[in-house]
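Please go through the sequence line and token line underneath and see whether the fold suits the sequence. See right below:
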Amino acid sequence: MGGGNRVDCFADVEMLDLAVGRWIRTQSMLQKRMALAAVELKGVLYATGGYDGNSYLKYVLGGFDGDSLVQSVESFDPRLGSWMPAEPMYFPRGYPAAAIVEDTMYVIGGMKDDENIAEAVEYYYEGQDWREMATVTIGKRCFMSAAAFST
């Protein structure tokens, strides 16, 4: 979902249809996004944060000015077949990681709007606002992934 090619930023979404063994296009996101984090919660897909592409070329050339990070979140419910705006995160961030733990969505680290790496962890439980955790990560991180598992 989303992404970029050094010239453009995309809202496109593709999914792997295992029944036919190929990737197919599905409903595009509402907003162009690259460097986003995505998770599934209760059958709904969430796209969180990222860059909207306004300053993508500047960023690739090393002069990112912080104006194009997004804190927006959108969700795709396959039963409805469309993307909808969801509760925005507290902070804009790009290149974060996201994971679901016990029906709670966590967004971890990433780049902040001033080119600094974020230490903050935000979490969202359906029907509540985003909140920042009192604890921080072990270290500042971006360009990463996260996975949750139970033992």
About this structure: Confidence is low (pLDDT under 50) at residues 56-66. The helical segments are 56-60. Strands lie at 13-17, 22-26, 37-41, 44-48, 73-77, 82-86, 97-101, 104-108, 121-125, 131-132.
